[in-house]
Request: fold
Amino acid sequence: MSTGIGVLRTIIQEGIRIQRGTQGHIEYVDSGNALPDCLARQNHVVFGRRGCGKTLLLHETAQKVRVDIRVVYINCEDYKQHSFPNVLIEILDKLFAEFEKNLTGWFGRKWRSKELIQKIRHDLQDLKRKPDERQVSVRESTGSDTSSGGELKLEVQGINVGIKENEAQKEAVEKIYKQHDIKIKDLNLVLPRLKESIEEFFSISSDVKAVFLELDDFYHLPRSIQPHVADYIHRLCKDVPLFFKIATLRHSSVLFADRGDQPIGVQERHDYQPINVDFTFEDFARTARQVRQILSAYGTRDTCRETRSTLYSSGTVLTD
Reply:
């Protein structure tokens, strides 16, 4: 194998799986207009098998966005073992942590903005510390005593206490009510205030007109909570200059669920536009064209050109 081909193989190997912060800039090779679509101020879900370039597309979007757009990147794999709705609280806290970190550059050094963000993050942390779900059993009993001078037996948690029963007949109806105190209710109450704060951030900013919230590897979240997370993120983004970009596997994702008369989640074409980067043999021509373009792009990378130039100048003949 020639040195040039060896360099090319190394570059390809390093580009097979993209991890943030571990590689230099790798250009996204786009044969289906996925990048221009993802750069639009619109909600998107990027579908594709592992290794098809979903993460690379998100990173390239962050590099190519307009100067008045900022990007917040969150890898959902970091939260795949977290309970619900804590996972949603942590995603929200990450978003506002990025707002706080970039407050000066994005929204200007305004004390009011800093105060708002700190209050929101404090409330989110308080909510996170609460139990996810508290179940309380309430027992109600009614009885009738038909004996004269009879005695009442009181049973508490299976233990007889106090009074013996004498010639008494007791009829009791016991009902158990389950009262759920779920954090998602509190989180829903917080939503209007979160949106008001986001609107205020943008109203005082002269440089930032929109923020893209990139949620990568969304399929790592349990399927049962995916519609709830997507639903909340969609409601958060609605009517404010905040747009979500979700990257996931189609067959491992449940983004919408119709439970009773209450739809939960986001619907394709209605709440988001799909971007398909899944290259398979079902569309052989499209897949072949993409692979050729990727190989050509790798071959023209600076490292390959420098290696080829060095070998030619030294008289080494390159053979494939």
